[in-house]
Amino acid sequence: MNLAAMDPQAYDQQLADKQAKLTQMFAEFETPQLEVFSSEPEHYRMRAEFRVWHDGDDLYYYMFDKALDEKVRCEQFLPASELINQMMPKLMEELRPNTLLRHKLFQVDFLSTLSGEILISLLYHKPLNEEWQAQAQALKTRLSSEFNVNLIGRARKQKFVLDRDYVIESIPVDGTQLIYKQVENSFTQPNGKVSIKMLEWAIDVTRQSSGDLLELYCGNGNFSIALAKNFNRVLATELAKPSVDSAQYNIKENKVDNVQIIRMSAEDFSDAMAKKRSFNRLKGIDLDSYDCNTIFVDPPRAGLDSETVKLVQKYERILYISCNPTTLLENLAVLNETHKVSRFALFDQFPYTDHMEAGLLLERR
């Protein structure tokens, strides 16, 4: 990470540079004008991870700065949420004099929410025991006087959870307050306010939809739940069990009754839809009963595999969120044969980095 590049005064220029770059990258596809969704210039990340350095009686967070090629002490961290920055010194004040809690501690992870919850994970190079658990519980109690906080201890093949290993996010999206369970070590969108903009953009571009929605890579149901109001039904797939469990929780808490989550990979689901294979986990689900005119994909950085691209091309409308424009370009080279881009967006999830999050709506030619 290049810490020196994180200058709020330079934010507008770095966003303009990304806008120009993304527009140029996709120029051959005759995309419409790029819709640009900015980030807060500071305190935008809901997650942060820090290594811990021991120097005699001193103890501090550090990150490795690639530009300087050295570790940098972090008393505060500009990208992290205000809640994480508030917690950082409070936690370190507690850890420094506590021989048991600081011994063999090598990393601290924070997961926060816009609605005021924070989860701390303490990672150790030693086994954790009941004495550690008692000290950690006392630490949690003291921190709870100021924060809505939970605590986790991790060591090799060990995980101590003090109360719970997740936070509950509550965010306003298109006039509705949505609730999301976000589990430690599971994927969640890192930039909370940009995530809201992404959800509202996806709602907007599908507002006049008909029929049902098929979603691949649904995670914790982040988009599924927000988009459900625009479709008769939503059929969504996700492979990671913690994400599926969170999605089921989120469906219930948001009182959404038209979303069905299936735990399987996009590749297996592609085979099931093509009737190449049958799967026990699809028993009782009549895939033929779904009238899916729209498909939504939010794949990992590797993009869509060739078989999934073929599956996606069968739908009238494709909503594609990408965290990697390079693999998006590769997929679009094929999708462009059957579909044209009608909406095009840049979401600045990761200010001061080269990373760009893009959104496309494609409609059949």
Could you please describe the fold and organization of this structure?
By secondary structure, the chain is α/β, with parallel strands linked by helices. 29% of the residues lie in helices and 31% in strands. It has ten helices and 17 strands. The strands form three sheets. An eight-stranded mixed sheet has the order 1-16-17-15-14-11-12-13, with helices on both faces. A hairpin with a 2-residue loop joins strand 2 and strand 3. The longest helix is centred in the N-terminal third of the chain and has 15 residues. It starts with 10 loop residues before the first helix and ends with a strand. The model has no long low-confidence stretch (mean pLDDT 94).
**Radius of gyration from the alpha-carbon trace, in angstroms:** 22 Å
Cα separation of the termini:
42 Å
Q: Major beta sheet, specifics?
A: 8 strands, mixed
Shape by Cα distribution = globular
Mean pLDDT score:
94
Q: How much strand content do the residues show?
A: 25-35%
Secondary structure class reads alpha/beta
Count of DSSP E strands?
17
**Low-pLDDT residue spans:** none
Output the helix-strand order. Answer: HEEEEHHEEHEEEEHEHEHEHEHEHEE
Cross-sheet strand order for the largest sheet: 1-16-17-15-14-11-12-13
Number of helices: 10
| Helical percentage | 25-40%
What's the SSE blueprint?
Layout: H1 11-25, E1 35-37, E2 47-55, E3 58-65, E4 70-73, H2 82-95, H3 99-102, E5 105-112, E6 117-124, H4 130-143, E7 148-155, E8 158-162, E9 166-173, E10 176-183, H5 192-205, E11 212-216, H6 222-227, E12 234-238, H7 241-253, E13 259-263, H8 266-273, E14 292-297, H9 306-312, E15 317-322, H10 325-335, E16 339-347, E17 357-364
Parallel strand pairs: 1-16, 6-7, 11-12, 11-14, 12-13, 14-15
Antiparallel strand pairs: 2-3, 2-5, 3-4, 5-6, 7-8, 9-10, 15-17, 16-17
